[in-house]
Amino acid sequence: MDSYSLSAAAKINLYLEVVGDRPDGYHELVMVMQSVGLTDRVTVRRTGAHHIRLQCNHPDVPNDETNLAYRAAALLQASFPQVMEHWGGIEIIIEKNIPVGAGLAGGSTNAAAVLVGLDMLWQLGLTQIELQTLAAELGSDIPFCIAGGTAIATGRGEQVDTLYGLDGLYAVLAKSPTLSVSTPWAYKTYRQAFADTYMDITTAGPSRREHLHSSPMMTAISQQDGDAIGQHLYNDLEKVVLSAHPEVNEVKTALASCGGLGTLMSGSGPTLFTLTASQSEAEAIVQQMRSRYSDSQLGLWIAPLVPTSLQLIES
Ligand code: ATP
Questions:
Q1: Using a CB cutoff of 8 Å and minimum separation of 24, what contacts does 253-258 make?
Q2: By Cβ atoms counted within 10 A, which residue in 31, 77, 96, 215 is the most buried?
Q3: Is position 141 annotated as part of the catalytic site?
């Protein structure tokens, strides 16, 4: 094959707890991540030239070597220097549907798609764990984006354990049209405000685990209990993002008043989501938001919770 196209899914965080500081300067986190059916299309194809080329149809996404998807290809090329000699250069084409800078891991899922697509195009035969180890060098969310589904992510987010998948739930996503939140800003601001509550992460295992609050969410997921999942949605970063951006708080209040199982900000925001038990309930919430919320530009999407992040698209 000369080209592969993959659909690459966004993620939401059903749970995000900042545990403490790590010696490497990152935060120690406990997150429950969930793939949702809002996808970009990522194509990798062979070209005659001996370099990497990238194009994306979104004005806010760079078309150069700073694009996370480009960096994924460059990392794979550096790790296997013979591949370009053997196969020639590549072109990456990204068709963006996932909002940018939205807390939905759009860049990370593109990078994951490139790693998996190039593994096939260059016939490297890497295992999922080998791909995830490479992915962790590029960004903390990328190992999850390779696996997808429902997972608990620990460490700086790169240690991913797949959980029992959630079936039949939907998310209504809402994002203010012009606002994006920088993830480094959110964590830096959180540290400034809450460092005194941080746990010493070198503390021994069991006593440390008692302090974490993720157990009710884990139980709810293992029991496939949508009501309990909705009740235990949690994100520490809301504490800084909602106060710094009142418009995000406003969208959250409006969305929460429309019903559903529970409402939360995803990642470092500004996207908010409400979980629902059916597509029709999600559609009713979107209708209510359109009639009640004053900003007609507000982005609203309905996305099912899905069991994988990446899927090969037949060309
Ligand atoms: P996360 O949830 O992982 O924090 P995010 O959804 O908040 O990510 P992205 O959409 O990945 O944020 O974009 C963050 C920044 O990265 C943007 O400023 C964007 O220009 C840049 N970027 C680089 N490569 C990509 C890509 N392939 N897709 C989207 N943004 C990219």
A1: 254/289, 254/292, 254/293, 255/172, 255/174, 255/285, 255/289, 257/292, 258/284, 258/285, 258/288, 258/289, 258/292
A2: 31
A3: yes
Contact in structure between 94 and 110 (CB atoms under 8 Å) = yes
Q: pLDDT digits over 222-256, tens only?
A: 999 999 999 999 999 999 999 999 999 999 999 99
pLDDT, one tens digit per residue, over 75-121 is 999 999 998 888 889 999 999 999 999 999 999 999 999 999 999 99
Domain at 111, CATH number: 3.30.230.10
Number of domains in the chain: 1
**What is the pTM (predicted TM-score) of this model?**
0.94
Which one of 33, 52, 75, 100 would you pick to mutate in the ligand 1 pocket, going by the greatest count of ligand atoms within 8 A of its CB? 100
Q: How far apart are CA 196 and CA 207, in angstroms?
A: 19
Domain that holds residue 96: 1-315
Using CA atoms, how far residue 47 sits from 57, 85, 112, 121, 124, in Å, is 20, 12, 21, 12, 18
Q: Taking Cα atoms as reference points, which of 259, 261, 263, 267 lies closest to residue 251?
A: 263
- What pLDDT does residue 180 have? 82
